Structure prediction request, 273 residues.
Amino acid sequence: MGTDDPVVGRAGAVGLAVALPVLLVVSWLVQLGVLLQASFGADDTRPGPAGGLAGLLVGTLLAVGVPVVVIVVYVLKRRRQPRTSLAAVISAIVVLVVAVPLNTLGIAGQVGTVAEDARVRAQPATAAERHFAHREGGAEAALNRIGDRTVELLGSRRSEGFRSDGSPKGGAYSEPCLLDNRHEGLEWEYWFIAAELQDASGADLLPEGAATVPGGATDLAAVRAAWQAEGIGAERSAVGSEEQYEPRADWLASSSYARPGPTVVLRTICLER
Prediction:
C-alpha cells in the first residue's frame, strides 16, 4: 500500500473525536447531579453513600469506559487496515488523561465514605436512644404523662385546649429521624401553648393581656419536683423576667422548656423505634 493511499474511516473517526469530549462533560454532569442530590435533595429521595458511589461509577463508565472501548476497537481496525484514521484514538487518549485521575480520586473518596457509613451503621444505638426500648408505652406514653402533669401543675389541662379549627389538642406526635448510627428512628414532641389554643366555646384559652390562664401558677417549683420524680433535672433559662425552666435528661432534646401560661414544649432526641 502506497503512502498516498487515502485515510480510511476519517469521517467516523472525526465524529467520535468530537463526541468523546462531549461525553466527558456529560459524565461530569451526571456525577455532579448525584452529588447535589446527595447533599441537598429531599430526605426521601437523597441517595446514600452507596447510591452516590453508583452515580460516580456511571459517570466513570461514560468518561473512561467508552474511550477505552474506542481505543481497543480502533487498534484492532489498524491491524486490519493500517490507514485507519487515528483521530478517535487521539481524542480518547486525551479524554482518558483528564478523566482517569479525576474519577480515581472521586471514587476513592466515595469508597471511603461508603466504608465509614458501614462502620457507623454497624454500631448499636446509644443508651439514650434506647431509653424506652423495654418500657411499657414507650416515649409517647411517657411524654404525654410528663407533659400533661406539667400542664396541670401550671393551671390547665390538655383536654381543655382546642385548636383554631375546633379540633381537640392532641398528645405527643412523632416524626422520622436518623439515630447516631444512621438507622431510622422517631423523635417525639409534646406541646401545649395556651396562647395558641381556645377553649370548648371557641374563646381564647389565654385571656387577652393575661400572662396565665385563670388561676394559673407562676412558680415552677412544683413542676421541677414532678420532673425530679421522673428522673429529669431542671435548668433555669435565661429569658428575661419570665420564669422558664428546661428539663434535662439524656433522652430529651435541649429545646424542651416550660413556663407559666402554661407553655410546655417537650421534645425527645431521635429514639430507637
In short: Strands lie at 173-178, 184-193, 233-236, 245-248, 257-259, 263-267, 271-272.
